[in-house]
Structures are given as C-alpha cells and as structure tokens.
Amino acid sequence: MTPPFTTIRQFNDAGLRAFLDYLRRVKEGDTQRSPDFLVDDQKLSSALNPGQWIDPRSFDTALDMVEYLYPRVMALSLPNKLYDPGLWSWLAAYYFDVICPPDKHDRRRVGELESYIATGDSRKSNRHLISAAIRFYHYHRPHNQLALYLSPGRRSEYLRVIQESPQLFTSPGLIEAIHRMYWNPETGAPYRGTLGDSNRSGSIKRLSVVMNQFAVNYDLQGMSADQILELLPKKEFGRWLEIAEAVRTEV
Amino acid sequence: MQILTSRIDYLPKGTAIFIEAYYRSSMMRFELGRLDGQLDQFSLRGERLTEIQSPRVTFRVKVVVRSGRHFGRIVGAIDRLQVLNRDSQDVDRIGLLPVRFEPLENLIWKVDFPDDGTDPMLCVNSELSVEFTSPSVLVRSNVTFQSLVFPEVVRRILEHILFEDNDEEDEDSWQVKWLQFARSYETEKLLPEADEFDKHRWIEDVLNAFSQSNRLKDNFEAALREHHS
User: Fold this and answer.
1) Is the ipTM of this complex over 0.95?
2) For the whole model, what pTM was predicted?
C-alpha cells in the first residue's frame, strides 16, 4: 500500500536502478504489485527541503494531478526541479497506481519506460507522464486543457505534437490559438476531427507542419494568438478559425 | 552581450532586435532595442537565464518588424549561436565538435556523450606534458594527432547515432547535424532498411571519404617522415 502522507522525496542512483528494474519486471509479467516498497526506502531516496506533503489520492485528469503537485514541487529548494530525474521518477513511483493502474484482471500495461523513469535527456523527458505535464502547465497556463484533459496515465496527442516542435512549445500566442481552435468548452474535450495525420486538413499535425514553415519567416514567439490565426490558410483551417474567432480567452 | 548593426534605413521604424536563449523546449527572450536610425549597437547586461534548465545554452538573434501589415516578419536572424568563454582554456570547438580539456588520468582522449542530450564532446587530457605545445594546439594543429584521432571520433559518434540514439525527428538535434555532415561524404545512401552490417559499411565508407578529403593519410606519412629524418 502506498504510504499515506509523506514528504516529497528524490530517488538516488540506487533508487532509479531499483525503479527501472521494477518496471521491467512488471512489463515482463513477473510482478504486478505496487512499487510502494521503493518509495519509502531510505536507502533509495532522500527527502527534499522544505518538506512538501503529498498523499496518495487519485486524480481524474492530468490537469487535476498537475494542479495538486505544481505548487508543492515549485516550493522545493531544488535546482533544475522541472527536469530532475530523481524527483520525477520518485513521484511516478509514488503515484504509480494512478498513472499505471491495474486493469480488471489486475494486470498493468506498462508503456515505454521513459513515461515513468525521468532522464536528464530533455528529448526523452518529454515522454514522462508527470514532469512533461507539469512543464506544460508551468509555461502555458491557462491554455492547458488540450494537453492535460486525459487521465494521468495517458499522454495527450496534442501535448505530444506540441512538444515535438520547440517552435510551437515556446510560442504562447500559438498555444492560445490552438486552444481556441480545438478545445470545446461545452463538452470539456477537443472538437472531433482535430487529430489525424499531417495530411488531414485542419488537424493539429497539419497545423504543426504549417507553423514550422511560418516559423522561418515569422517571429511566432512574439506574436499574439490573433496575429498567428491571421496567418493560417482559410482553405485548410476555415472551420477552426471560425471557432477561434468566436472565442476570446480571458487571461 | 553586445550586438553591432550596420545602419538599416529601409526597415520600418520600431523594428526590434530580440535575443532568445534556448535549450530544447526552454526559452527566454529579451528585447535589445528598436532600430530607429540613431543607434547601431545594442547590449544586454544583468539578465539571468533562470528558465533554462541546461548549462548548454544556444542563442538566436532576430530582427523583427513590429508595426504595419508585416508585423512579426523576421527580416534578419542568426541562429544556433553558442557562446564560448574565450578566456577559458577549458573548451574549444573544431567545426561541429566541441572540445573540452580536462584531467583524464592515463587516457589521452575520449568521446563523451552527455546524459542531457547535448552535443557529444571530444575530451582531451589537460595534463598532457608535451614540449613546445599545449593540448589545445595539439588538437588544432598537430597532424599526427588529427589523423589518428579525428576519424575515430567521427566513427564513435556515427555508431552512437546509428546504433544507440538516433533523433532525426528534431532537426535541431546534434544527431541530425552529424548525419548531415556524414552524408556530405557518403558515396552511397544509407537506406532506412539497412541492417547492422550495412550501417557499419556505410560508416567505413564515410570515414574513408572524410580521411581522403582531409588528406589524413598523406599528412600522417609526411609527419612520420619528418620525425624520422
């Protein structure tokens, strides 16, 4: 059973190796138990200062999880906290029942290991289910719904596409534009027809291709959402541009 | 940091100069000033890169129209600027390859692949005791060192990319830059379905062309003759 109230900890090298070993055993079917035996082992991790208390609650969405963890993580006196491998791997272990819950047959479907083990490689760290969500929230409140609307154990395709392109990720105006185009506030979910491959008109992948082309000639990082929306070809994005036009996000 | 510009009278008033510091998804942006026909140099002092999570920072300078119907247009830019402390004797760069001088005990050199995904680096023993030269001059100018070491450095980097860590999705990645470098020497393309044997053969092919292009064999032979004469 995951320990009740505890302060946030950080895996050391031995802890990271132990968690990696555990994940591999789960993936191979050797065990399905919770990794609670790792998270409070004093030999595998150390408490961070100042002590920030967390408890093993459940979360419906990644956004719920992020809103709970973010103030606690940001209060830590830890350099490079948004990327620290020991911190994020420990949090993934602590909340493993949330991000990789057992199914009705008591079996866990472990995805790629980078989803749970944070690495110092910034590219692979974009795959971590918790730290990647936290970073998106850090840079792009309040336009984070598309990235964080799914359950904590599932990575939003919108988040994945945005993370793959630094030009997109670092443009607040573009993130707002994407939010206004694709997020349906009435249903609390994205509009249908916004996914699909890069050949699909109006899809997020197609948008990524188009905006990366614009990034050569336009300063996307300094443009507002309205200015960026003006650039988009109406033939491809007409329906979504109308939706975006009707929405004005209050910051 | 100080940036000098020539007078650019044809640009609209208010055209701005920005400098962006970035590493992967982290970025910080500073406006240096506006081109108003009066100033031709801009500087930035006292800012801290608090949001950049890596000690390896790359810079981009943009000149951007900030008025009228071309608002947001980039009219000038320099990207992928890396800063070296020229007063430091610990780092250097030879083309794509950063070089770091550090104690390596009994090793002369090694290739380091940092965990944070930054560029691979040639590390050379800073404690080499060599008459009439220094480790830095050795790397830059000694043909014996270059002819024996550089092909092997390239080999290790290409093997690392092809067998361990190929990130061709990110066009800014060091893997893409090194593959572009290697492809400039290839005589046959490496096919996507290439197996391990084909990849090793491709690497040999690239190294052979690289060595030939830089006359490494000739230079090595000449150095040996000079040494023995």
Assistant:
1) no
2) 0.74
